[in-house]
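Give me structure tokens for this 143-residue protein.
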Amino acid sequence: VQPIIAMRTPIIRQIAMASLDIGMFELIVKRGLYHKTHLSDQLMALFWKPMKTSTGRKGFLHFAKCLDNKNLTEIENDLRQLTIPVLIIRGDADVYLSDSISEKLHSEIPNSELIRIETAGHFMQEDEPEKISASILNFINRT
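Here you go.
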């Protein structure tokens, strides 16, 4: 979570973006994976593709600027008003988003279900695609 907090500081964001190369970006992506061996050259190329353009880098910079987990408090009342079933899936090895975020969402959203995947990190769709799709299909079939 600390790198996310640091990216909220304008000068840190600017320095990070100016010095970001594919090697550093690969470290960021790899850190977010539970199964590090899933990061093939082909997958890394897909992660890196948007960063090849100035628009993509600006988008990433804007995304980093917006990373503020405190925004949940702004929509807290709205979350309590949801009347539809909600599925929250968390990769337990996520180093970028704290466990408290998924716990808070689950506690604030009535009718929510929280599924934890022990063998998934931040990029859980790459770590455990079968478990995620099975969880989603099971949830849809039950609701």
